[in-house]
Amino acid sequence: MGTDDGVREPLGALPQPAGVERHAEDEAEYAVLLDRYNTVLDELFAGGEAYAVTSEWAAPSEPTDPSAHRAALHPEGTLWTTLDDTDDPDPAFHIRWYFYADRRPWQRGCLDPLLRAVTDDTLPGGVLVTDPGFTRIHHPYDGGADVILPTSGERDRLRNRHSARLSTHPSGY
Question: Sorting pLDDT into bands at 50, 70 and 90, what band is 61?
């Protein structure tokens, strides 16, 4: 996913002891997490527009019925596309992915409910935030975020600005 040309950068959200996944335990930690996510999102999208993309999955034979939880967190999201993952020879493991997207002017905090659900690991499929040209992608997850940028120079500048938040794992995980 963009790692061959060196443009992916994982950023930690909260300080983590080695081998321990950190989740916000109180409102003060949520405030830190949301500020860190929004700081990077501001750098990527301020003054422009962004797509928020959420997803969910089901067996291809199941009816299309968006979850109430995802719809409540992302009410602006409309079905954008579906993708069938049928590579496994066993049909029991076939999955149909549903992607919901909306386009919005970027404003700090506009995705806080989605970001908070991501930090709590309660949004199956998570969220991707991208510019309309799909050249800058922010993928938050519980414990951090991956950022994919169009050039290694942009990646390096982002890394330098947020060096204190980078993983100390030798492989950057």
Answer: confident
Question: Is 80 exceeded by the pLDDT of residue 143?
Answer: no
Degrees (nearest 5) of the Cα angle 136, 102, 104?
Answer: 70
Which class for 83: exposed (0-12), middle (13-18), buried (19 or more C-beta within 10 A)? exposed
The phi, psi pair for 124, rounded to 5°, reads -55, 135
- The alpha carbon dihedral of 121, 85, 94, 80 has a sign of positive
Place of tokens 């800058």: 136
Give the model's pLDDT for residue 157.
93
Give per-residue burial for 48-59: e unless 16+ CB within 10 Å, then b.
Answer: eebbbbbbbbbe
HSE value, Cβ hemisphere, 13 Å, CA-based, for 3: 7
What HEC string does the chain produce?
CCCCCCCEEEEECCCCCCCCCCCCCCHHHHHHHHHHHHHHHHHHHCCCEEEEEEEEEECCCCCCCCCHHHHHHCCCCEEEEEEEECCCCCHHHCEEEEEEEEEEECCCCCCHHHHHHHHCCCCCCCEEEECCCCCCEEEEECCEEEEECCCHHHHHHHHHHCHHHCCCCCCCC
